[in-house]
Amino acid sequence: MTSRRQVLGLIGLGLAAAACRRSAPTGGEAGKAPRIAVIPKGTTHEFWKSVHAGAVKASQELGVEIVWKGPLKEDDLKSQIDLVQSFVAQRISGIVLAPLDSKGLRGAVKDAVRSGIPVVVFDSALDSADPISYVATDNRAAGRLAGERMVEALGGQGKLVVLRYQEGSASTHEREEGFLEAVRKAVGVQVVSDNQYSGPTTESAYAASESLLLAQRAAQGDIAGVFAPNESSTFGMLLALEKARIAGRLRFVGFDASTKLVAGLRDGKIHGLVVQNPLEMGYRSTKALALHLRGEKIEAKVDTGSTFVTAKNLDLPEIKQLVAPDLSRWLGAAG
User: Fold this and answer.
1) d(CA 202, CA 241)
2) What gap in Å lies between CA 88 and CA 34, rounded to an integer?
3) Contacts of 131 (CB under 8 A, 6+ apart)
4) Among positive and negative, which fits the CA dihedral 180, 131, 70, 49?
5) Are 166 and 102 in contact (CB under 8 A)?
């Protein structure tokens, strides 16, 4: 027969076990895969589809569950902050975040970390020491690469314009500044405009590009080169150049790859594209957080690289994999 003391002991053990379950670490309860929220800047551009595929790839390899959710538009800072706060309230295991604003997400990230939820930042830097790792292109170096190739294309002579992306975006700001550093070293190159912003969508970029080209008399031949720092600004500028019937007449260097931008490259309407590796970015950032949840040491900063793509090297196997990766393996038919 079980004694009263034994019964009390068993009850105590049960209560202790229940308490342990309630206070299980954010790495996930025993028998359950950790849940990692992956929050991109937006969900419409092809760049983010590749990031999503990389995150899924890492989740399959490391046995974690990802929740992919981001703002529809890349200027919806409130929505991104709300998402971080919502995932914190859900006691997610960790957050992988591409911050829309280098300062605007600091408070939400700090709250997450205080709650015991680790954060990895990718694509664009956060002005904070709270994230455990930063996974991205070396954006300033990538901008310098674009600038150096622009100077070569211009033969060291000519006027050019820079269409910036959006204030507060750390990644594109670094690209713009890197580009300007490189072109300003060329005595014969003159930057006649570098203070116009495209905004977050192709539509806003198209409107800004039209105004910029008109103001700088691009159709009259006053401009020799144009630079745009991301997918939507590059495509918006391409559309404006096509409408003005000057696409291909001036040197145009852009950023990122999509089906339409690659077509513009083949047609000679774009001189070159600085292409990142968004699939690797999604993979490495999600992997870093998964390894951290296992208690493994991870790198504080990871450079996922950039490549200058032209019509001449477009069909090389390694370039094809960058500009048109097969995402269906990880995203299914939707990829």
Assistant:
1) 13
2) 14
3) 97, 109, 119, 120, 121
4) positive
5) no
Q: What is the mean pLDDT of residues 123-146?
A: 97
Alpha helices, DSSP H, located in the chain: 4-22, 46-62, 77-89, 106-114, 139-154, 170-183, 202-215, 231-243, 259-266, 278-293, 317-323, 328-331
What top-level class would CATH report for the domain 139-275?
A: alpha beta
Q: Where are the domains of the chain?
A: 30-137+278-304, 139-275
- pLDDT tens-digit series, residues 30-54: 568 999 999 999 998 899 999 999 9
* Residue (of 259, 172, 246, 253) closest to 216 by Cα position: 246
Compute the 3-state secondary structure of the chain and give helix, strand, coil in percent, each to the nearest 5.
45, 15, 35
Proportion of the chain above pLDDT 90, given as a percent: 86
Please tell me the pTM assigned to this model.
0.85
User: What's the topology of domain 30-137+278-304?
Assistant: Rossmann fold (3.40.50)
Please answer whether residues 287 and 60 qualify as being in contact, where contact means their C-beta atoms are separated by less than 8 angstroms: no
Q: How far, in whole angstroms, is CA 19 from its chain's centroid?
A: 40
Locate 70 and state its tokens: 């981001």
Name the DSSP class of 332. G
What torsion do the CA atoms of 164, 169, 172, 176 make, to the nearest 10 degrees? 50
Does 25 score more than 80 pLDDT? Answer: no
pLDDT at 64 over 50: yes
Q: Do domains 30-137+278-304 and 139-275 have the same CATH topology?
A: yes
Least Cα distance to 136 among 183, 88, 102 occurs for: 102
